[in-house]
Amino acid sequence: MVNTGSRFWFAVVALGVVGALGYLLTSGGELYGTLVLASTAVAGTILGVTSIAVRDGDVALAAHGRPAAERRPVATRFAAAWPALAALGVGVCAVGLATGGALFYVGVAILGATLAEWMVQSWAERSTADPVVNQQLRNRVMFPVEIPALALVGIAVAVLAFSRILLAVSDTASTVVAIVVATVILGAGALLNARPQVSSSVLAVIVVLAAVGLLGSGIVAAVAGEREFEEHHGEEGSEEDAEEGAEGGAGHAEEAPAGAEAHGGG
To answer: What is the DSSP annotation of 91-127?
Structure first.
C-alpha cells in the first residue's frame, strides 16, 4: 500500500528525474548537475520504498487492510520551541549574509539542528498513544546526540568568554581573575561533594546564573576590546648591536693597515 510518506518521496523522485533530464538537455551534456539530481531521485526512491515497508510507523494492519486499533491524536507534553528557533536561524542567516561574517554559518547550524530536533519530535509524538512512552522514545534517540553536542558548545562558549575577559583586563588582574575563578570552582565542587543531597533544581539555578554571568562578562569584555600589549625589542636590539659591532670591527681592520703603512713610510 502506498502511504502518505512514500507519496511525498516519490514526488521528490519525479522532480529529480525531470530535473536531471531537463538539466542534461539544456546544459549541453554537463554531468555534475545531472548526477546530483539523479542521486536525489535514487535517494528518494530508497526512502519511499522504506516508508512503504515500515508503513510510516503506523500500527499493524488487520487482515482486511484496516487499522487494528484506531488511535486518537496525542498532544505534545511540552510546548515545542522549534518554530521560534527556526525563525532565529533564518534571522541569523540574513544578518550573516548582510554582514558577510561567520554568522551565516551559525544560522545554518541552528537551522540544521532545529530541523533534526523537530523531525524526531514529530516522529516520537505519533509512535504510541502514551505521551510518556513517546517522550522516552524521543530521549532515547536524541540524548546520545544532544548531550555531547551541548557539552561541546558549552565548553567552547565558556572558553571563548573567559578568554575575552582575561584579554580585556590588565596582566595582573587577569592572573587574579584566573585564580579567583579556579578557587570558586574548586570550592563549589568540594561543597557539592560534602553535601550531595542538594536538589537538582538548586544546581540548575546555580549553573544557569554562572553561565549567564560568564556569558555577559564575556560579551562586555569583547565589546571593550583587548588590552594593549607591549612590544619587546630585545631580539631586534641584539641584532642591531651585532651589526654595529661587525661594522666597527671592519672599520678598525681598515684603519690598522693604514697605520702600518704610515709607520713604514716613516
So the answer is: HHHHHHHHH-STHHHHHHHHHHHHHHHHHHHHHHHTT
Residue 109 lies in a domain: no
Other Cβ atoms less than 10 A from the Cβ of 252: the count is 9
Q: What is the pTM of this model?
A: 0.53
> By three-state DSSP, how is residue 54 classified?
helix
Q: Which of 247, 226, 224 is nearest to 170 (CA)?
A: 226
Mean pLDDT on 119-133: 85
C-alpha cell at 34: 545531472
> In this structure, are residues 240 and 183 in contact, taking their beta carbons and an 8 Å threshold?
no
- What digits encode the pLDDT tens for the residues 174-230? 899 999 999 998 998 898 888 878 787 888 888 888 888 888 888 888 888 887 777
Q: Considering the chain, what is the average pLDDT of its residues?
A: 78
**Comparison of pLDDT for 64 and 130, the residue scoring more:** 130
Domains in the chain, number: 2
Tell whether 6 is covered by a domain.
yes
Distance CA 17, CA 5 (A): 19
Domain that holds residue 20: 1-60
CA 234, CA 189: separation in Å to the nearest integer? Answer: 44
Number of continuous H segments (helices) and E segments (strands) in the chain: 8, 0
